[in-house]
Amino acid sequence: MRQTEPTGSTAPTGSTGPAEPESTDYDVVVLGAGPVGENVADRTRAAGLTTAIVESELVGGECSYWACMPSKALLRPVLARADARRTPGLSRSAQGPLDVSAVLAHRDEYTSHWKDDGQVQWLRSVGVELHRGVGRITGPRTVTVTAGDGTRHVLTARHAVAVCTGSRALLPPLPGLADVAPWTSREATSAKAVPGRLVVVGGGVVATEMATAWQALGSRVTLLVRGKGLLSRMEPFAGELVAEALTEAGADLRTGTSATSVTRENGTVVVVTDTGERIEADEILFATGRAPRTDDIGLETVGLEPGSWLTVDDTLRVTGQDWLYAVGDVNRRALLTHQGKYQARIAGAAIAARAAGEPVAAEAWGAHAATADHDAVPQVVFTDPEAGSVGLSLAEAEQAGHRVRAVDLDLSSVAGAGLYGEDYKGRARMVVDLESETLRGVTFVGPGVGELIHSATVAVVAQVPVARLWHAVPSYPTISEAWLRLLEAYRDSA
Q1: pTM
Q2: 229 touches 239 (CB < 8 A)
Q3: Looking at domain 385-492, which of 3.20.20.150, 3.30.460.10, 3.30.390.30, 2.170.150.70 is its CATH number?
Q4: pLDDT tens digits for 415-456?
Q5: ∠ CA 318-322-325 to the nearest 5 degrees?
Q6: Rg (CA), the chain
């Protein structure tokens, strides 16, 4: 790093003009200190590049404080109690309510009480310089940071600027919605009390997970889903099983229903649906999509559209720019923390290779190519039952023109499922490419299946032939025996 002489950091005697901003040179400047930005910075520092990171909120970002960490802290006791209720010897004692104060206290501890001291210390330990404030691109390879006190600092990148600013909740254009103070994912994961009645608008991951959590914590949840069912990006049976469980838990699920107006009257939220029905609640959560946090980061100064998703190649470099990278949610390839961190590792390695003048391995599955973004993205939804998938669904594989066969399995037939109790409900599907006899996609739904997804991910990414999978013997009695039963079903259906 080279810091220029801050000759204009204070106004000369007698001058009434503003102070000239301090200026510092780095090899790499990262906009956004969430998990994605942290990983880009970590990889470039590990390669010996001087790196600065800019953050206007908390170091650790959305995942640490308002998404992955708090939501899973809320859901873990819910799923543990559900497992206990299915287990002989525990089922009777697990019928009581959850200790809400203990659950919320653990959530608060898991998010470090919304303080980022530990994350800041980690940045320092790897040699990344943190700049607190709002960062805006002000020209090629240049970022200007405006601190809370109004002072500015110009950061110049010799090699790369990485935009890792993530995404924000997208609210529908309903008149007067701002006056209602609706919940987004942030409020849903950080709320200090359980709402007596909660309306959840949406049918995706955030909607189903938060409906699961707050229903179990004592709220009366009403789900308004515009489409035909839940989790529409997964195999249809995933949403069906989650919907069945939510309904059994007491949630009111209404599909094919949209909110047309929302008002707050004397503290009560009033929702009118497209069927003319009036629903009253204490809070309303909109889980209706995401938008990129790129509206005020200076994209227009380098010829890009403010507020847009950024198009990148597989090395995560922005189209038409040889110095600008967009990593994580902002490129819309896969809005998942783990996938963003994967991209960050790829981008960090690509930036380092280009800085050193080394060859860039951008071919499929190369060291500098985020190939998994295309057809090997894993995801787990922490509902009861859990739903996990990787790769393509049957419909997606067929739409892509692949000749495939789906193999289905009732997971209750697996010996390990019996350990969860007699009423275990779950399904699995394996989508086999009939030309290569490798897996295009795998889906598991059922209690305890989240830990199965990585084995499926390895099979899809490595393109392991079905004939070789026969030799990957699952331990008995575990739910992973589902692999053997799926392979047997494929063989028997040939």
Answers
A1: 0.94
A2: yes
A3: 3.30.390.30
A4: 999 898 878 999 999 999 999 999 999 999 999 999 999 999
A5: 40
A6: 25
